[in-house]
Amino acid sequence: MRALTKKSITMKAAVGVALLIALTGCSTPSEPEPSAPTEAEAPAPKECSGLTGLEALEKWANKVETTRAWDTAGEYSDVSGYDECAELSYIVLRPAECCTAFEITPVMFFNRGQFIPAATVTERAQARTPDAVTERIDDSAIALTFAVPGGANTPPILTTTTYTWDEDSGAVIAEDQAPATEETVGGDANGHWCPTAESNDQNGCVTIALPTATYDSGATKELVDRGDLNGDGGIAYIAPGAPFGTFYPAGTPIALPDYYAGTDLPDQDRIWNGQTAVMLVRQ
Predict the structure, then answer these.
(1) Which of 82-96, 182-196, 238-252 has the highest mean pLDDT?
(2) Cβ distance 58 to 52 under 8 Å?
(3) In the chain, where the domains are located
(4) pLDDT value of residue 8
(5) Cis omega (within 30 of 0) on the bond before 194?
(6) pTM of the prediction?
(7) Tens digit of pLDDT for each residue in 104-159?
(8) H, E, C per residue of the chain
(9) In Å, how far are 17, 107, 239, 281 from 206, measured between CA atoms?
(10) What's the rounded Cα separation, in Å, for the pair 81 and 64?
(11) Which residues, if any, are the signal sequence (predicted)?
(12) Cα 235 to chain center, whole Å?
């Protein structure tokens, strides 16, 4: 009996060990399966401003630095080019009592309805003739036409500029199409010129070595000689897209408009820009 009892205990122990091994094997942790890669989230679309053209005009018109008071009610200013969701849209500012054919009409540009101050066009007059182009090329590009005086009894010179919103730089890129004119550079405008105290000037003094005008800031303009457009003894120069001014030698008077605060200086050489009310005097 003692031997059987010992064998039985031994067999039970062996069965227990086998069961423990089996249980231990089942509890061995397995390697976690790799999770499936997730797709990169697309960037959230830009929001529209939520403003109408008139609301944008009222909000930002006074941000344009100028001596004029602009119409902010939409009676004269043009908000038809504004789009709160477009990559690029625009508003044309006009004064409350508007406007001679060549009076400066600043153009404000907007990205998704938000004002872009650095892109504002402040020295040109938008053309309002049947030949003028106002064209939306696509959601981020607009072509606008500006008018440059053509002289007495002659039609204005129309120049078209394409403005494009560049997403990478966050800026508006302007590309001018120069008017089709024959370059006949001449006259005696070479020299150093500075604006009078009464001038509505934003550029400062300029050195002219025809056909190039170089401002003290380093900015340059290429000039085209248009001759005596007004029949008053002056030589008109235009830069791409805008008039530069008419050169009047000493002894040739200028019929100045009322909106220029100064008086003529007929004993000096002058360059007069009637569109910007700037008179440059040779230094």
Answers:
(1) 82-96
(2) no
(3) 53-177, 191-282
(4) 46
(5) no
(6) 0.54
(7) 889 999 999 999 999 999 888 887 665 566 788 999 999 998 887 655 455 667 78
(8) CHHHHHHHHHHHHHHHHHHHHHHHHHCCCCCCCCCCCCCCCCCCCCCCCCCCHHHHHHHHHHHCCCCCCECCCCCCCECCCCCCCCCCEEEECCECCCCCCCCCCCEEEEECCEECHHHCECCCCECCCCCCCEEEEECCEEEEEEEECCCCCCCCEEEEEEEEEECCCCEEEEEEECCCCCCCCCCCCCEEEEECCCCCCCCCCEEEECCEEEECCCCEEECEEEECCCCCCCEEEEECCEEEEEEECCCCCCCCCCCCCCCCCCCCCEEEECCCCEEEEEC
(9) 103, 25, 14, 10
(10) 18
(11) 1-32
(12) 31
Query: Could you give the CA distance from residue 105 to residue 129 in angstroms, rounded to a whole number?
Result: 14
Distance CA 69, CA 236 (A): 29
> How many residues are present in the chain?
283
Q: Which long-range contacts (CB under 8 A, 24 or more apart) does 100-108 make?
A: 101/125, 101/128, 101/147, 101/156, 102/147, 102/148, 102/149, 102/156, 102/274, 102/275, 103/275, 104/66, 104/68, 104/275, 104/276, 106/64, 106/66, 106/70, 107/144, 108/60, 108/61, 108/64
Residue position matching structure tokens 């969701």: 85
How many Cβ atoms from other residues are within 10 Å of residue 90's Cβ?
27
